[in-house]
Amino acid sequence: MTNTLTVAELKRRGMAAIEEGLRRGPVHIVKRNKPAAVVLSEEEYARLTHGKVTKPQGLTAVQWLLNLPGTGTRSKEEIDAELKAERVW
Questions:
Q1: What is the pTM of this model?
Q2: Tens of pLDDT along 24-76?
Q3: C-alpha closest to that of 15 among 37, 43, 39
Q4: Of 17, 23, 26, which Cα lies nearest the Cα of 48?
Q5: How far apart are CA 39 and CA 19, in angstroms?
Q6: I need a labelling partner for 23 at 20 to 30 A (CA). Which of 53, 70, 73, 74 fits?
């Protein structure tokens, strides 16, 4: 049987649940009855990567968003005025 841990149990028990599961090998995390992730021990991860961890290539999601050109037509002042009007009670 696969060494599984549900997200609900992970939320309830936290790191203790992961540590307990790792004693039996990799821990398969299940979210909404579907496989979501696998947690490995540090030793197993190092073995699989041969001790070489590669840096992800490309932009992060935040960097990508910040690089998008502006498409709005309102000025900052207009947006600020609208927000201020919405917040007046």
A1: 0.56
A2: 999 999 998 999 999 999 889 888 888 777 666 787 888 877 787 777 888 88
A3: 39
A4: 26
A5: 10
A6: 53
